[in-house]
Write a structure and sequence with these properties.
This protein is α+β, with helices and mostly antiparallel strands. 38% of the residues lie in helices and 12% in strands. A five-stranded mixed beta sheet has the order 1-2-5-3-4. The chain is elongated.
Length: 263
């Protein structure tokens, strides 16, 4: 009996050619065609006559106005920035396309702008307070100045004296335009008010700071959550206090303005 023939089946594995049948080449080819189209468009514009260039320029500057029939009579001249004329809100000045030299040479950073704000507020406060403020200190972080005792309080009193609202109202109108925080510190000299117990300067100075804060809140100049009252007493003297004039300067209300609460 004859033996059955042996059948051998060979399987071939496809390899290495799957990428050619993918779609990646289509993206590359599309980019190539787009680049060639742009290249030939530029070459065509370079070789075109002046009328054709004006027509293309007018279309991009005035896309809503036909270049021939029915065009805007005021659009005869093609403007590099379209219909923008005059001073714009950005650095570019409308159709002029000019950049102010001072902005290029000395650009102002946000932190530097904050110092300018503090300086402007300080100068205005000094002006409305009739040049009676002292200890003016201007920096990027804060603005600090002191109001003398005699403008707001009678000696030894924690109540605002008559006529103090004249100065507090002026100062309040300035503070209500400031968007940051206001710290109000009461300061005394090293002497004790009449009948006061030792160490009570801190409570005394805090009461004065709170009285100023309450005025600002009552008149709706500054919200209460934007103010921080503090009683420092004689701990931070402005002068040595060896003379009556020096002790007088130590008795003060000090304002510190800051864009945040980092006092």
């Amino acid at each position: 009996m004859a033996e059955a023939p042996i059948i051998v089946i060979k399987k071939k594995k496809a390899g290495g050619h799957g990428g050619a049948h993918g779609g990646a080449w289509k993206v590359a080819y599309a980019d190539f065609v787009t680049a060639m189209m742009c290249f030939f468009l530029v070459m065509w514009l370079l070789g075109a006559d002046e009328e054709t260039k004006q027509s293309v320029s007018h279309y991009f500057n005035h896309p809503n106005t036909p270049y021939t029939a029915g065009r805007d009579p005021q659009s005869e001249e093609a403007h590099p920035l379209g219909e923008n004329v005059g001073q714009g809100e950005s650095v570019m000045q409308g159709a002029d396309g000019e950049v102010p030299a001072e902005l290029v040479e000395k650009p102002m950073r946000p932190v530097e702008q904050q110092k300018v704000i503090h300086q402007d507020v300080g100068e205005l406060a000094q002006q409305v307070m009739e040049d009676q403020l002292y200890g003016m200190d201007v920096s990027i972080e804060n603005l600090r100045f002191s109001v003398p005792e005699e403008l707001l309080f009678e000696p030894g009193s924690i109540e605002l004296k008559a006529g103090s609202d004249k100065y507090l109202a002026r100062l309040g109108r300035i503070l209500e335009t400031y968007t940051g925080y206001v710290k109000i510190e009461g300061h005394t000299d090293d002497s004790l008010p009449a009948g006061a117990a030792p160490g009570s300067q801190f409570e005394f100075s805090l009461s004065r700071a709170v009285a100023v804060m309450k005025y600002m809140v009552k008149k709706d100049f500054v919200k209460e959550d934007r103010m921080i009252p503090s009683g420092v007493g004689p701990r931070k003297p402005f002068s040595s206090g060896e003379s009556p004039e020096g002790r007088k300067k130590n008795r003060r209300i000090e304002f510190t303005l800051s864009p945040d609460r980092s006092f």
